[in-house]
Amino acid sequence: MSFGYSRRADLAEPFLAMEVMERALELERGGADIVHLEVGEPDFPAPPAAVEACQQALARGETGYTDSRGLAELREAIAADHRRRSGVEVDPDRVIVTGGTSPAMLLVFLLLVEPGDEVVLAAPHYPCYPNFVHVAGGVPVYVETRAEDGYRLDPDEVRAALTPRTRAIVVASPANPTGAIQDAETLAALANLGVPLVSDEIYDGLVYDEHRVTSALGLGEDVFVLDGFSKRYAMTGFRLGYVVAPERAIRPLQTLGQSLFISASHFVQRAGIAALAHGEPTLREMRSAYARRRRLLLDGLAPIGFSVPTPPAGAFYVFANARRFGDDSRSLAFDLLERAHVAVTPGIDFGQAGEGFLRFSYAASDDAIARALQRLGEALS
Ligand SMILES: Cc1ncc(COP(=O)(O)O)c(C=O)c1O
After folding, report:
1. Which atom, in ligand 1's list, is nearest to the CA of 40?
2. Which residue's CA is the closest to the ligand 1 atom numbered 16?
3. From atom 7 of ligand 1, which residue's Cα is the shortest distance away?
4. Residue 42, preceding bond cis, omega within 30 degrees?
5. Are 38 and 362 in contact (CB under 8 A)?
């Protein structure tokens, strides 16, 4: 007898950035030289202090489980870091540490969403959000943001999308894929619509013109802040993140986490403590490199025929309108991969609102960006 798999497995859309990367790797195995601008992964080493702290923890034998909420010392350091960055006082008991921001996201959606409940997502959006909502049994409801308005998530449009079944509003600032930042008034309005606000702040710190990011922490009663070490400290593979949640949510999040994950790795949490204490130089170095590469990309994409009505204010992506070359971003991205050997992510990965766009990651060297621009120019001329 053969068993079928759950319907849940069909509800998750393929992550196209990964599919492009996997095809690129296949081409590389065949000898092709590919320029990778598809993945959202810093090309910098983790802060040396974090690596050292991890090694020392391993040598000391800190290889077991920890408190399911994370080491007290790390939760205190995270609270202090939020105080420093956003000026908001955070009780360390409101922090739950997880093995990346993604597990924190899973816990929050499992906590908030009953089967059939709705979750409002700003579109275009990080590809995994709807997948998390589906896994929790929920239904994503999209509120479109537009390049012409700087991708502002309009609180009035969100209000109009709310129904008695709405259980959360999700916003990311700075955002993937647009690099857009939501201003303080917008975040405050979103946090006070009577529905929990889930604010993904994983790109906070990676901003270019001025540091005008506002945390949603402290803006409303029911705010869940998701954050982690992957982007700000170039620690994607360490797998370390956290959620700062309202006090009454902590116990249920903790019990869910106890069963699903038990705890984040002990030695990785030590790396997190060290990154918060000594990671600023890595962040500064990345920020200045990304600022330069952002300029390189913006200056190089325009003459080829891509338009970027709202240049990114943060994160490390340029979301460029590619309609001049066709409306089907998936075909265009795979065509560019095959013909120009440049890997980029199709806009459709970020929902229907992203169709006709391509996302270029500038977490790649200046040289890689220059080569990509040259190849794209030739392939699309
Ligand atoms: C907006 C956003 N949130 C969350 C994540 C996941 O991060 P983590 O590595 O902490 O699981 C990503 C990764 O690309 C992201 O872009």
Report:
1. 14
2. 176
3. 101
4. no
5. no
Q: Classify the C-alpha dihedral 361-364-369-371 as positive or negative.
A: negative
Full set of structural domains in the chain with CATH: 8-45+281-380 (3.90.1150.10), 48-278 (3.40.640.10)
Please indicate whether residue 100, judged by its CB atom, sits closer than 6 Å to ligand 1: yes
The residue type of 131 is N
The type of residue at 198 is: V
What are the pLDDT digits (tens) for 293-324?
Answer: 999 999 999 999 999 999 999 999 999 999 99
Which atom from ligand 1 is nearest to the alpha carbon of 104? 11
Q: Give 316-327 pLDDT, tens digit per residue.
A: 999 999 999 999
In this prediction the pTM is 0.95
| Residue showing tokens 């959360």 | 168
Beta carbons of 100 and 229 less than 8 angstroms apart: no
Contact between 322 and 356 under an 8 Å Cβ cutoff? The reply is yes
* Pocket lining: 316 vs ligand 1, CB cutoff 6 Å: no
Structure tokens at 368: 């890689």
